[in-house]
Specification:
Length: 756
Amino acid sequence: MAISGSPLRSAFSYHYEGELSIGQRVVVDFAGRNVVGYITSISSKPQFKTKPISRPLEKQVYLTPADITLAKWTVENYLAPIGKVFDLFFPPGKLLKSSSFVIPINSELPFSEPLKMSEALKLMGREQILKLKSQRKLKILHSYEKKLPSKRKVKLLKLSLSIKALEDLNLTTIQKKIIDYLLSVEKATPKEVMEALALKSRSPIETLLRRGTIELEEEEEDRSDSSWTIDAIEDLTSEQESVREAIIKDFKGVHYIFGLTGSGKTEVYFKIMERVLNRGKSVSYMVPEVSLTPQLMARIRGAFPGREVRVYHSYMSPAKRQRIWLDAVNDEIDILVGTRSALWIPIQNTGLIIVDEEHDSSFYQQTPPHYDAVEVAIKKGELYGIPVVLGSATPRVERYFRAKAGEFKLHSLLNRPVGQLPDLEIRDLRNSKDYIIPSETLGEIEKTVKLGHQVFVFVHRKGFSNYVVCANCGNILKCPNCDISLTYHKHDSVLKCHYCGYTTPPPSKCERCGSAALSARGFGTERVEHELQKRFPELSIMRMDRETISNPDQYEKALRKIESKDANIIVGTKMIAKGLDFPNIGLVVVIDADRIINLPNYDSAETAFQIISQISGRSGRGVHGKAIIQTFEPEHRVIKTALENDYMGFFETEVEIRKILKYPPFSTFIEIVVEKEKEEQCEKEAWELFNCIQENIKAAEVLEPVVPAVKKLFGKYRMKIHLKLFDREELEKVLKLLQKNPAGVDILVNSNGGSF
Ligand SMILES: Nc1ncnc2c1ncn2[C@@H]1O[C@H](COP(=O)(O)OP(=O)(O)OP(=O)(O)O)[C@@H](O)[C@H]1O
Ligand SMILES: [Zn+2]
């Protein structure tokens, strides 16, 4: 039995008189509390005493033996707590009971009224129902036992008269504008109308409402079922077509599409999906972050009109996640687009798993249970016999290595169907007076905007300045909970910790020496935006970072603003580096390439290469494009290979270095974090653990405990032990050693880019 929510790494034994199945959820007493347990195996009565299972939580068994195997594999390979791994399969909260109905759409069916699912099953059997459903001859609907938590309502304006009747009205210019606007968008809140038309008062809206020309309608606020669509392309290029063919011909195992930015990977996925969908199976489409989805969703809606497409990610309300989860396990979704959490939904009829931007660090879960969703996807494909397609322009070194070694079937896309790869240029900051935006860069920006094109400006960090320092004594203001310098945010005039969210007004004096000579140094997105706006007051500059965009709706709005060319310059963090496809981007500027290269991780070179290539790749998709990379180290191998779009070159040197230093793929890299309230205790336990590991684990290189770059986080002191394991079999031994000392020890296996 795996205990839900438990940080423990082992399962427990319970007994029960009645019938239960593996994978079923039950209620048990654990340490005096009623908690949910997952049955992971069933055996005859053991010798030792066991507690009874209170009752089954639900009759239905959602997890199959393959799911259980997948969970156990994750536990073993990531040394993750078993209960938390099982929790990943389910949405938060207690599942709602539902009854299903089959609704006929087509008149050829043997029934014309809606039927209860149980009756329909008797009449035709499951296979037949699913077949008719995929032919869109019937629909399945659920009614839930109790009302789902109601969503907030919003009032939307819409036209109440036909277009013909509108023509006969006598309208003022403003009223006409309002009506034209509503004709184009169908529905909008009064506020949106006022903003769009720059109305000073609401009275013209009120007048139209009183006359009955327009009306207010209540609607649920959640408008994520957005209507934004992007038309599908007609035909694949011959390069794309041959990749598609090769994959379809050998449609099993893992395929890897190495495709330069803008080479049309997404369109190839779509064509492969089409085939799977036409055979009545569903597709899981995995993306690194929810932020990638609005534009992708618009493209999917354009390419697959009429298909059931849903998004699933952890930003959603629990109620919404639950509804989508139930639809998914009931086989009612054709295409499920989601982040790593979507991978775990126990869908039975998946026919294809796509993992786009495979290299992205968001696929690794940084909070327990840690796991790498790409590896889990590959394993899931293997266990369920589902083909898996991975894709990226900048593969993760380890995976490209495996692809070359024949573990995955490798395909390449090296040309852009539209536009060209951008010209890349280095701006050597050593010769420049201004290290943020030198005048040559400003000139390029101006030139691009004059041509009517848009500019992306990438900055590694958000905020105005990175740190505030006392010019008198050198004291740097830090977060009291974390050992991190506070970032100055000019807009709200606060100092903020980007790790724990702590904020404080800027002090007037240095707390150490009392001097008033505090100054903000370094820079982030807000500062860059500020500088650009000062230089180009007439241009529309939009900032995109976690500060200005905190939910998917805001993100979609921002993307639409880029699409409609309402923003000339877009300043952003990693958020703008990923997967976006806008034809009018004529210039991309990477403000601070060095900052990414010099992060303290073994794979920082890889991360830097990825970010620089991905962000440059946003340029030149329609118009002729350019990318400027600003650096103090123009000779750095990452800069040089990125500049030449030379992934292969980068890969080969990187592999050489990793081989010498014995980093992955030449070892399993394990990071053990010891966290304690007291600094001395943290240090003591870290050394004890180190000695113990060194004594017991032979096929490994164990590095002495170090104080990490972030020495204190969320109020706890930290030490890290790094381990290069040369024999994967030894993982279990490491686990056993840790089990002796589980409290305050966290462990990450082959995590990517996330260590700090
Ligand atoms: N065969 C084609 N004919 C015409 N246009 C195409 C074709 N294939 C792709 N495109 C267009 O080229 C652009 C880039 O394609 P897409 O977004 O699929 O590339 P990608 O490889 O997924 O890019 P990235 O990795 O940078 O996200 C899109 O606007 C797409 O519509
Ligand atoms: Zn903090």
